[in-house]
Amino acid sequence: MESGQPPHFLWNRGDEEGRHYWRRLGEEKISIRQNAAGEMQASPGHAKHASKLLRAGDDLEKIYSTIAAEDAVMARAIEKFRGMRLTKSGEWETLVSFLCSQNSNMARIRNNVQMLLRDGSVLAPEEILQLPPMQLKKINLGYREQYLLASAAMVAGGEFDLPGLHGLSCEDARAELQRLPGVGPKVADCVLLYGFGRLEAFPNDVWVGRAMQKWYGVATPRQVKEFAERKWGVLAGYAQQYLFMLAREKLR
DNA sequence: CCCCAGGCACAGC
DNA sequence: GCTGTGCATGGG
User: Fold this and answer.
1) How far apart are CA A15 and CA A100, in angstroms?
2) Separation of CA A33 and C1' B9 in angstroms?
3) What is the pLDDT of residues A169-210, one digit of tens each?
4) Measuring from the CA of residue A107 to each C1', which nucleotide is nearest?
5) Which pTM does this prediction carry?
6) A240 touches strand B (CB under 7 A)
7) Burial, A58: exposed, middle or buried (Cβ in 10 Å; 0-12, 13-18, 19+)?
8) Residue A60 in contact with residue A83, Cβ under 8 Å?
9) Is the C-beta of residue A220 closer than 7 Å to nucleic acid chain C?
10) Fewer C-beta neighbours within 10 Å, C or N terminus of chain A?
11) For residue range A127-152, what is the model confidence (pLDDT) as tens digits?
12) CA torsion, points A161, A165, A167, A171, in degrees to nearest 10?
């Protein structure tokens, strides 16, 4: 919930003891927690939502044994962040989150995304387009504001079919996403991984780049992409998330 | 006050 | 195709 994935920007940490997070959902409030036994608990009627969000079907131990095979770095990352899951958020809210993310930092991204919420949900493309310029300016998106507006216009105008990406191969969906202003290789991979559940996507940001350089001796984006695909295959997204967290702690 | 941030678009090779 | 550069602005 606090690993730089969309829930980091969309959900709130509860004040009470224990791991507890909540989010408004229209008129009601959905909350999830982890009990003393390590089990996930959701507010009444929200178990299904929580299971999907936290990808309860993923077998972490099986994933660990696959991605950490003959890989001391990955084994270390898993040891340190054991239990961290990939998450599945909405397609649009994921796209908006990472349109806000470029050349920014996590605290600011969260502030930006929080400003784009109404009743706990990210404003629809049409609603963003209707925001008065002054109000939009106050969100402090900087130059990303133009990217958000232009991308929202393409989605709202039917020029871009976001849910339609589900029907494409990962590679095709990635190319399609990069038609959107402000979406390059990295943002596209984040949207595919966190918003479309494409676990083979491998977002290559500054931290992952440093990790790949220092720990695997791989430098260029091209090399990184090929290396990740060969080494971790369809689980590259999980490997990336653990590398990201380890890099932020060790390569600060 | 300075440095950097979950990058991208664009220009120039 | 690859490399360098500017970018608005807040957080630490």
Assistant:
1) 27
2) 42
3) 999 999 999 999 999 999 999 999 999 999 999 999 999 999
4) C11
5) 0.98
6) yes
7) middle
8) yes
9) yes
10) C
11) 999 999 999 999 999 999 999 999 99
12) 140
